[in-house]
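Morning F.,

Quick status update on the modeling queue. The single chain you submitted on Monday has been processed. Sequence for confirmation:
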Amino acid sequence: MQTVKAFVVEDSPLILDQLVATLEELSPVQVIGSAGDEASALKWLAEPRNACDLVIIDIFLKSGSGLGVLKSAARSGSAGKRVVLTNYATPDMRQHCASLGADRVFDKSRELDELISYCTHLGEASGESASARLS
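Structure tokens below.
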């Protein structure tokens, strides 16, 4: 199983710490960076040395929006898979996130197991065929 290098955009230090601990314990994820606001996330993602396999994005941030991060990451094509992890995973928000380039949207309170499963499958997958299976 391959290690999945992830970048997390989350403004709550408590949620970030719990999420990182959970993902690193229960899936092949290694969190290599994080940001709590849109500007910091975009700056980190723009650095070529900060290549990652997965970007996990919350929608509501200290400043800016996860939607802006999602849109920029999709447009640049530099980040790997892009998923949204939010408390506002309504059908409309899921559709909007997909239109901005999200590969998946997970509800923080009800779909953490699905996120862990997604990360595990990402670690098991390899090459182009993996991207097709996880879209």
